[in-house]
Write a structure and sequence with these properties.
By secondary structure, the protein is of the alpha/beta class. It is built from 3 helices and 4 strands, in the order αβαβββα. It has a 4-stranded mixed β-sheet, with helices on one face. A hairpin with a 2-residue loop joins strand 3 and strand 4. The termini are far apart.
């Protein structure tokens, strides 16, 4: 539930600054050394939250896995969850988060 609350804050900030009335998106999920949460549950929950926030902000959203305007990255390692919202990830060459931080 904390993940969803944080995601809502991120999305409201993103949509507030968006200068268009539509947006494409993708959700990427990676999990290592944990089985506590299921991939489909997380992706469905994030997708539903995204739709709710977009509707409230009057933004039309569509899934686009090849050229998304924004990508929600979810990384789980044991009991730690990382959540990022990245604009135009295809232009960044689907960067490797580990090398971007180093």
């Amino acid at each position: 539930q904390d993940i969803i609350a944080f995601l809502k804050e991120m999305l409201y900030g993103y949509f507030k600054d968006l200068k268009q009335s539509s947006c494409t998106y993708a959700i990427q999920f990676k999990r290592r050394n944990t089985e506590s949460l299921h991939r489909d549950e997380i992706i469905n929950s994030v997708g539903n939250t995204l739709e709710q926030v977009a509707h409230k902000c009057k933004i039309e959203i569509t899934a686009n896995l090849k050229q998304p305007g924004m990508t929600i990255l979810i990384e789980m390692y044991k009991s730690v969850v990382g959540l990022s919202l990245v604009k135009d990830i295809a232009q960044l060459g689907k960067f490797n988060v580990r090398t971007a931080v180093a």
